[in-house]
From TrEMBL:
Residues 15-174 form the Glycosyltransferase 2-like domain. The keyword Transferase applies. It comes from the Bacteria. One of its GO terms (molecular function) is transferase activity. This is Glycosyltransferase. SUPFAM superfamilies: Nucleotide-diphospho-sugar transferases. InterPro entries: Glyco_trans_2-like (IPR001173), Nucleotide-diphossugar_trans (IPR029044). It comes from Microvirga thermotolerans. Keywords: Transferase. Pfam families: Glycos_transf_2 (PF00535). The keyword Nucleotidyltransferase does not apply.
Length: 297
């Protein structure tokens, strides 16, 4: 079994895992990281399950938040607590493959001026998730044609925040994840700031990880509404931040109509979905922040 590169037995990378009701997913995630010799900091966002206990039993260092601080703020706390040269941000439903962390660190050594290193993400179906474009990308905004996966290392303006490696100092220098965002688009925003700093984002296909896609947190009542609220709010927020057209009015109109239709047909799941999106867009238009929505300051 391979292990992450070490200098005189001192780890050079720490994994940061943010947990929120993630006890079901953590054993596989943390077990894979332990097998690669990577120390882990788990930031528990006030889970209602045994996430913190599971993480401690697996040998991880656990930072306990008194309340759910959101994905970006929790990751930032974990990175600040780390002391290694590199940090590996990992979702709890991600399992790193053998040699994946070493491959990412190796790429970082070969490309010292690059800013972010992304692995090949394989979904449960076997599909490779490769989306090198983003709402905020300054290039490749929506390329047409058939997407062809790179056969070797390649640069792109965006990679998923489910798993990536960065130098800790650079992450902190850039301000980490935007702490005004509670959930969604924080990876788009970070990738945009890395690009704007003149650094490349590098795809490292020899580093393979598996992603459970949506298994990070357990289900609970109101989760869909809350998730869609933040997705709409965060899209409007980053659009304004980078001078893009404001999508909030259109999101409000479209989703409010869809929510009304769902109410008339008694489809509760769709009421939550479209109602959450409409409410998030309306909140943004009224100037309500995502942090205030969550009772944070």
């Amino acid at each position: 079994m391979s292990s992450a590169p070490r200098d005189r037995d001192t780890p050079v990378v720490t994994a940061i895992v943010v947990a929120f009701d993630s006890a079901h997913a953590l054993p596989d995630c943390l077990g894979a990281l332990r097998g690669e010799g990577v120390p882990v900091i788990v930031v528990d966002n006030a889970s209602g399950d045994a996430s913190a206990a599971v993480a401690e039993a697996a040998g991880a260092r656990v930072l306990r938040n008194a309340r759910n601080e959101g994905y970006g703020r929790a990751n930032n706390a974990g990175v600040r607590a780390a002391e290694t040269e590199f940090v590996l941000v990992v979702n709890p439903d991600v399992t790193v493959g053998e040699g994946a962390v070493a491959a990412l660190v190796g790429a970082a050594r070969r490309h010292p001026d690059a800013g972010l290193f992304a692995p090949k993400i394989v979904e449960p179906s076997g599909r490779v998730f490769f989306q090198p474009r983003s709402l905020l990308a300054s290039r490749l905004p929506n390329p047409g044609g058939r997407l062809v996966l790179p056969e070797g290392e390649a640069c792109a303006p965006f990679f998923s925040g489910a798993c990536f490696l960065m130098r800790r100092d650079l992450f902190l220098e850039l301000g980490g994840f935007d702490e005004e965002i509670f959930l969604f688009y924080e990876d788009d925003d970070l990738c945009r700031r890395i690009e704007d700093s003149g650094r490349a984002l590098v795809y490292v296909p020899q580093a393979v990880v598996k992603h459970g896609r949506g298994r990070s947190s357990g289900s609970r009542p109101g989760l869909v509404f809350r998730s869609r609220w933040h997705q709409a709010w965060s899209r409007a927020y980053v659009s304004r931040k980078y001078g893009l057209p404001d999508p909030a009015p259109a999101m409000l109109a479209v989703n409010a109509l869809k929510a009304l239709g769902a109410i008339l047909t008694f489809r509760r799941s769709l009421v939550e979905r479209y109602g959450g999106s409409a409410a998030g867009a309306w909140a943004f238009m009224r100037g309500r922040s995502a942090l205030r929505q969550e009772g944070l300051s």
